[in-house]
Amino acid sequence: xxxxxxxxIRLRERLNKNxxxxxxxxxGICLEMDRVKLKLEIDYKLSxxxxxxxxxxxxSEFMYYDGDKLIGYAGICNFGGAVLEVNGMVHxxxxxxxxxxxxxxxxxxxxxxxxxxxxxxxxxxxxSSGLEFIKSTGASFDNSEYEMFLRxxxxxxxxxxxxxxxxxxxxxxxxxxxxxxxxxxxEFKEEDICMFEEEEKCGAITYIAEINNKIIGKVxxxxxxxxGGIYGFGVLPEYRGNGYGRDILLSSIEKLKEKTSxxxxxxxxxxxxNALNLYKSCGFEETxxxxxxxxxx
Length: 297
Description:
Elements: E1 7-12, H1 17-34, H2 42-49, E2 61-66, E3 69-77, E4 83-90, H3 99-112, E5 118-124, H4 128-136, E6 140-150, E7 163-167, H5 173-184, H6 196-201, E8 204-211, E9 214-224, E10 227-235, H7 244-258, E11 263-269, H8 273-281, E12 284-296
Parallel strand pairs: 4-5, 10-11
Antiparallel strand pairs: 1-2, 2-3, 3-4, 5-12, 6-11, 6-12, 7-8, 8-9, 9-10
């Protein structure tokens, strides 16, 4: 491409439709060239931005343009707690020109003035350029996560127990936050607690798993572009080892199929061997590995 002739950077608190279209187009170019996975969460972000006013009190979207052409993007995701996730990309024709270095400096400035104590930088395990940049920041490896898709016929599709998935309401918010802490050690503040009735309007439904009216775990289901996602899946420690996890997973698959999901996917830590074995036994296969690197204040 030569040189960047008309550079400017656009900052947003949240995405609007035009931003989304620019980022989506750039994502397509990068995926075609690099054949790697990008975890940008732009569909998630756009669905939660509709109708909200951008005040720039907390910047989450960083877009680098050359004239009217988006050539670089970095985004911050905050799913609650004291950890931010950062991912991004640069147009193949504008790499090694300092584009992402500039964007990341702005991301760090925003992180430093906020309350989050840690920042996780994400890259596909097969992206040599992404991993090279992350390592140049001094970030240390934290963990890896598999994305898995349901590719095979369920080897065991009978629900063995009377597990019920009950749709959450806002009254269940603290219970879900407590479970998140148990499963992920993610601390929460009152202002971070999710309002599930609002989340449902955006297509994400969280369920509390119960047996005989006792809470045993939870799961969140979401459909985006025909792909059903299983997230935040967990069984409380005192109920593990009884097959309840398999029942929650099978019930989740049933619900997504009822909503005509064309594909079903989930994500799991590479370290979580018990969950990994469960998912494989239910017909899921790994499709890619995402690496997470940590920077702490």
